[in-house]
Amino acid sequence: MGGIINDFFKTLKPKEKIIVISSMAALGVVLIGVVLLIAFCGKDTSQPGGIKPHEHTYDEYYLDFNGGFFNVKGDCSFEGCDEAKTLATGVAVSQLPIKEATCTESGQILCVYSYNGTTLQYPVKVEKKPHSFDYDVNGNQLSGKCTADGCGETNSVTAVSVVKKSESPATCKEPSKTVYTATLADGSELEVVEYGTDKLSKHTLNGTLIDSSVVYNYANVAGVTSNVKCGETGEGKFVCAVCEAQASITVKMPTHKFKLDYANATYPTGTAVGNIGFSCQNATCTEFVNENIQLPKIKVGLGGNSTIVSEATATSPAYVRYEFDALGIPVVFERIPYVAACTHEYANYKAVPNGTSGYYTVTATCIKPGCDDKNLRVTNATKVSETPATCQQVSTATYRVNGQNIVINGTEKGAHSFVINYATIVNPTATSKGTVEFRCKHAGCMFASNSSTAIDEIEIGVNATIISEATATEPAYVRYEFESFFGTLVLERIPYEP
Question: How much is the pTM?
Fold first, then answer.
């Protein structure tokens, strides 16, 4: 920038003026009106100064600053004539910043005005700015450092007294702040502000600092939004009351607090299911709102859900106490009417896993004539025992269904379980068949006693593999494998002669 300014000064005309303005305010004067003064000299027959009579001509101009106004002046270009005239007064110049004033260096602006096709320039010096010190307090000693960029000026002042004016603790938005009033020896006062180094890491909700290590009860903190479900812990969001930024909080939702709608319940009967409405009472729960629980039919006796509290009379049905647990919610009717349903006779039982480990869905059909509720379907049956199928019988499985043990048979018998009597085996050779005795270990099977069957000759590469070659004293040995209806027979090492 300095080079530009120096080049600019070299272009100035001899009569261009430089003035010093203490502040930019002096240039803010609204310059009014332009008055053009075009002067002509008259014919001078006496020829004063030996200059011939002429008409003044101005083709060189410059800006002049006088009385707070900028004027345009020109010198007559006729040879020997030094007549100068003010050609325009009170012109409005444009101000171009060349260099900003700081507390260590003066600045400069350039005033520019276009006149008669010529751009006129007028440089103006701007005085230095005063230092602006930021003080630290150490007892009664004030140590100041200039806050301007690039300025290292310091200043030390001894105060007569230093009084703490105010103090603000750190927040998540601002560090701590302490304000002092320092009285100097001349009676003047300085206000000194000292800031802490760190902002507070905790955000504020409802006037309380939120601790990230604490799990808050979701029901007790207003202003938090979260998708956390009942009985779970998760992240919530809130707007900090201090810095207004979104912040996180760890919240725990209370477990479901259910309320049953007994007033609008439909009682179950011996032949039909009932239902009852319920809702979770936690204010933010959206999982269970105006839901319904289906209540199974009344079943009296072992494994049932009801007990008779009064027997039927000629004018009144029996009444039972009904109890059912749904989703951990105990549903209890102390006294509801009961008419016994017919006793079903089910057949065609089937059981399949219901998707939950250890539980099965059992279905069956009532075969009693006239039954209008033929289909049984129980989704929470458990398996009590199981007997696999054999060659003599189908598999059986016992399930616990509605408090009773139900046996469901498989559809097909299983395979034989053969046992080979290795002690009686006659090894095959390359030219003769061998024999093997076997029996099925299941009682009642036609193969329960030992039976003998032939096995094929040794054929290398088909049913046998040489595992040791013949020597002068030993024959060759092979591993022999034979597939038969009673299973696979493997003889690991038998003699072989081609």
Answer: 0.33
